[in-house]
Amino acid sequence: MHADLLLLLLENAAAATFAVLLVLTLRTRLRRTFGSRAVYALWLMVPIALVAVWLPAAVRDARMVLDFVSDATTAEFASAPLLVTVSDHSGAWLIVWSLGAVALALFFGMQQARFIRGLGTRTLREDGTELAQTMAGCPALVGALHPRIVLPQDFEARYTGEERALVLLHERSHLKSGDAQINAVVAALRCVFWFNPLVHWAAARFRFDQELACDARVIAQAPSARRAYAEAMLKTQLTFVGLPIGCHWQSTHPLTERIVMLKHPLPGRIRVFAGSLLVALLATGCGLAAWAMQPESHNLQVGSKGEANYDVAIRLTVDGKTSTPRIITREGIESMVSEGDGDERIGLRFRIFGRAATDQVEIRGQIITGASERVVGSPSLVVKLGTPAIIRVGAGADGSQAFELELTVKHAGSRVAPAVVAVPTASAGTG
Question: What is the pTM (predicted TM-score) of this model?
């Protein structure tokens, strides 16, 4: 299970990186042509790419169920060199990842708690907003489950009547658009991908695009209030107060650029429609690309007339290209996975035997090479059900291909829960 979880994490990290780089490349040009709201919607490519990774991979070969003709079944593919064995450290890497994710989550939690404590006692106003005891960090939309608009203590004195209406319009626009909840999701993704600096850098760009989109919504509702809206921004304190879950004006957003954007005309209906269509096409294309990046699945099932005992999931990698055949077999029946033809052929011939009253099985194998299937090693190992046995080979100096074979045995009809172990080194000789 450790190896599969680590692989899934890395696949998601690759998909997120791909989507983020695409957004960062397009956002400036898209904003000039279609406006800030189109750029904010463009960030949907990131969650779409992540969801695409969870979808089933493409299957190249049709599933087949064959009867055993004899006591041997074979699945063949194409070439490999001399076999060596290594242990897998995926469990240790998952522990490191977990510690990093928890540490960042605790940091965000402390940052959120510090911000809320800094607001002091909040007084509920007639319009449903709250008045804080402080001026720093406000106005703000605080929380995710039940976000509240919190105003600074001097709200009435600091802003004019028109400015107060615009500030409330801004915060209510955040509230209506679900921006506080979206920021909570962003914080969660930063915890998951804490090891990727691009994700943290992109999060700041995302928050900036979120504010520009909110500004655009406000101006669309009050087109004649651009000057008053800019003055309200200038009156807002710009000291940095961390608020991971929520929305507030005084953050790392470049205020100058926000004010400059207020001078730009909003896109018309045709450009808004064209921008929405383009974003939808880009998001769909990004999702398809992330899905296509997954290794293809090769489903080969070999069954017998009688009930099968074991389902053997196989991950076969040759020079970085992975396939995933599967063999369903009975206890003691010989099965084989091989690569290549003629003298280049190499593979593993194996039988599986259960151990009574345990969740362990014994795999007795023979490593064969060449057209004559010469036995060069006879590994025999005991593993827990769902525990992969891995055989790896590095690329040889003679140009031979890098090869990796992983066998994961489970009872037929049960769910694989693998955890990596090392296979004993194969010794030369006849088994």
Answer: 0.64
